[in-house]
Each structure stands twice: as C-alpha cells, then as structure tokens.
Amino acid sequence: MKRILLLLSLCLTAFAGKAQTAAINNFLVKENLLKNNKLAIIAADSLNNPNENINGTYTFSVSGFTQILKFNDGIAVLPLPIDKSTFVYIKHQNDTGTHSKLVYVYKKDTDLSPYAINSLWLFIIPIALIIIAFAFRKLIIFVVIVFLVFVYFNHSNGLNLSTFFESIFDGLKNLV
Question: Please, what is the angle between helix 140-156 and helix 119-135, to 10°?
Fold first, then answer.
C-alpha cells in the first residue's frame, strides 16, 4: 500500500511540474520565425524583455475565441494563419488581472507586421472628432465623414463593436 501511495505521489509531483509555473503579466506579439503567416506570443516582463522562464499551457482569448497556447521558453504560436491585414485583440487573464493588447497586423506578401495600438487612441479619436464638430459648426460634415471612415476601417479589418469597447474599457482599467 505504501508503494502505491508513493507511486501516486511521484506521478502527481511529475504532473504538477508540467503545469504553469509562472504568471504572464505582459506579452509581445511578433511574426512567427517560420514566416508561415502565424503570430507568435512572447511572454515578457514589465520592460518588454522576453521572459524565457514561461513554460506550460496558458489560456488566451484571441479576437473573442478561446485558445490554449503551449509556451516553450516563453514563446507560443497562434494556431490560425492570417490571410489579410486585420485587427487582433489578444487577452490573457490570471490571478493578477486581465492583460490585453490590441494589435493591427499589416500583411504585405508573406510578411506580417504587427503594430500594438494603445486602446486609448480608440477613445481619444472619436472624442476629438466630436469636440471639433461642436467647436467648428462648419466642419460637421467633414467630421461625420472622417468618423464614418474611421468606423468603416475598423469594422472592415476585423474590429467589431464589442471588441472596440472591450479594448477601450481594458485600457481605461489599466490606467487606474
């Protein structure tokens, strides 16, 4: 009986060693080194230096879809390839809070160029347009056209209304 308990204890210890060992509180989004139209998520510290101590499986939300990513030496690859320029909203939640990034991925031929977007810009641009429209009444038509172009660009590149507001609220929460 003692041998069975000892064996069971060793098995549980070995299993626990493969579980998450560290929390991901920041991450970077880069193009995968294999150039296969996939993005790589790189665990990082608060100074955006890669953290190679992250190993195991972590749950992320990628544009509203739950993805379980396996990190090896701080790097995980998103499973779905990107076929055109698009917005990608990546969110990870752990014990210390929610960590998210809104990224615009520009695709040119076979290269992907991810650009992190500060979600406050999504809040500031419409507010600035409204202030300009109220301050200069002659520019109302121009402001409405610019606002419609802004909304169309966001929507046509995969940034729907729920993701738009979710990224704004997450950005405002991180300020506090």
Answer: 160
Same domain, 139 and 75: no
Show the domain range for 56: 20-117
Burial letters 158-172, b for 16+ CB under 10 A, else e? bbeeebbebbbebbe
70, 108: one domain: yes
Q: Do 162 and 86 sit in the same domain of this protein?
A: no
Question: Each residue of 69-99: pLDDT tens digit?
Answer: 999 999 999 988 888 888 888 988 887 777 8
At 25-55, the pLDDT tens digits run 889 999 988 888 899 999 998 888 888 888 9
